[in-house]
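Give me the 3D structure for Cupin domain-containing protein.
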Amino acid sequence: MNIEPSTPTVKNPPEQFAGDVWVDMIAVPHESNQRMNVAVVKFAPGARTAWHSHARGQYLRVTRGIARFGDRDGTIIDVHPGQTLYTPPGQDHWHAAAGDTFMEHVAMLENSDDPAATTTWKEHITDDDYTGRTGKDLS
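Predicted structure for Cupin domain-containing protein (139 residues):
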């Protein structure tokens, strides 16, 4: 048993994020048979990810602000603090801070067999992707 060392907050790269987005890792695998990754991710107002997918899916628990999520079929979902969004393996999606406030979520996902293939990053989303016409509100 041990207390994990603190790691510095890292600003996410512009190749994968538009706007300011920071990550604090909470848990990463220590042994070859472990897969779990957990991080707190903070988005400045309007900041967003590029399109991406996860080999084993992902859970995102919103802890602050309103998160906006979209998929390739044009569905947009706004998720509020205390709600958790699940994205299945291989589903292209994006996430962002909705509106004019900061958004924070806890990201939980498992590494793929090849950890470098855990997340597949694609092109940046457009303003039309972000604003969309279709919306579901889970509140």
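The chain has one domain: 10-137. Let me know if you want a second pass.
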